[in-house]
Write a structure and sequence with these properties.
The chain is of the alpha+beta class. 62% of the residues lie in helices and 16% in strands. Helix 4 packs antiparallel against helix 5 and helix 7 packs parallel to helix 8.
Amino acid sequence: MRLQYKILLLSVVPLLVSLGLIAWAVQWEQNSMAETRRLQLRTAYMNVKQDELRHYVALAMSTISPLYNLGEDDDAVKQQVMQRLANLDYGPDGYFFLYSMDGTNLMHPRQPELVGKNLTDLRDSKGEPTLRMLLERARTGGGFVVYQWPKPSTHLETPKLGYVTVLERWGWMIGTGMYLDDIDAATQQLDTELERNIHSTLLWIAGAGALGVALIFGCTLVLRFTERQQSDAKLRLLALKLVDSQEVERSRLSRELHDSTGQTLVVIKLLIESTLERMDRAEATVRAPLVQAIARLQEALLEVRGMSHRLRPVMLDTLGLPAALESLGNETCGQFGIEFSMEVSGTPRELPDEVKTMLFRITQEAMTNIQKHAACRYVSLRLDFQPEALVLSIQDDGRGFDVEAVAANPRRGIGLQNMRERIEALGGSFSLTSQPGWTSVKVSLSLDAIERFAHADA
C-alpha cells in the first residue's frame, strides 16, 4: 500500500471511530437525561393532580358536611347528599362517584347505567380489579389509586388517578379522579423534542465528521497534486538532462565526423587526384577505378558533412539561431523544389544553448514531417522576438490532416508529440492547427523561461 493511502487510512479511521464513540456517548447521555426528565415531569404532574384532587374532595366534603353532620340517616338526607355530589362536576371529565362498601354503585353522573350494580368483580383492560383497589384504599383511610377507566369525552379506557375516602356511618365510599392522558401527551411531546435534539446533535456530529473527512481527502489531494508537480518537475529536469547529454554527444560526433573522418576523406581524395595527375599517359584500365574511387569519396564526404550538419549545425554555434533555421529551411525545401521563406521580427537577442538547440530540433522535426506528408508548394518560417516571449511559427500550404485523429493514434504523431514534449520541457507552449491547404505549428517560450536557462548557463 502506498504511503499516502496509509496516511489517509490512519487519519480517517481514528476520526470515524472517535466520532462514532462521541455520537454513542451523546445519544446515551441524551436518553439518560430524557428518562430523568420524563420521571420529573410525571412526578410534577402527579403532584399537581393530587393537590387538585385533595382540593376537590375537600370541597365536596364541605358541601355535604351540613347534611351528613345532622345525624339523620334517612333516605331523604342521603338523596340530597347524592344530588349535591352529582352537581359537583368540573369539566367534561371531572365528577364524583359513590359506592357502598360492598361494591354496589350508588351514584355515577357520567354512567347512570352502573347505578345499582355490584362491580366488585370488575377488571380493567390490564386485568386489575378496579373497584376492589378503590374499596381497599377507602378501608385504609382513603388515598390515591391509579387505574383504567373509560373517559366520558372519548369513551376510551384511559389511565386515571382516583382519590377516595369513606363516610363510615353510612358505609359509603366517595371518590373522584383525574385522567392521566394529558401526562402521556406531555411526555410524548417531551420525547419528540428530545429525539429532535438528539437527531440535530447527531447531524452536527455527522457534519463535523464529513467536514473532517473532506479536509483529510482535500489535504491528500493537495499532497498528491504537490507530489505530482514535483514528479513532473523532476521528469522535465531529467528530460532536459537527457536532451543535453544527447546534444553533447551529437556535438562530439559532429566534430569527430567533421574534423577527423571528414579530413581523412579529404586527404585520401587529394592523394588519389595527385596520383591521377601523374598518370596522364597511363592506361585507361588503371585510371578508371581511380576516377570511380574519387566519385565515391566525394559522395562519402558530402554524406559525412550532411551527418555532421544534422547532428550539430556549425552555424547554430557560430552565426546563431536565425541563420541556422534559414539554412535548414533552404536545404530541406530545396531538395524537393519547395519554395521557402523566413522572417525574423523584433530585436534578436542572444539565446541559451538549450533554447537554440530545442528550437532548431523542433524546426528540424517539422521540416521532416513536411517532407513526408504535406505535399506542399510553399513553407514559411517566422521567428518573432517579442518583449515578453519568443515565438516560432512554421506554416505550409499542404494537404493538412486531422489533428485529433493523429493525436489519438499511438502509432502516429510521434514526431508531433516529441515537438510538444521538447518545448514543454523548457516551460513553453505548443499549438498545432491544420486543415486542407493550411497547417501551422507554433511554439512559444516566455522571457522568464529563457532567462532561467541563461542564468543556469552562467
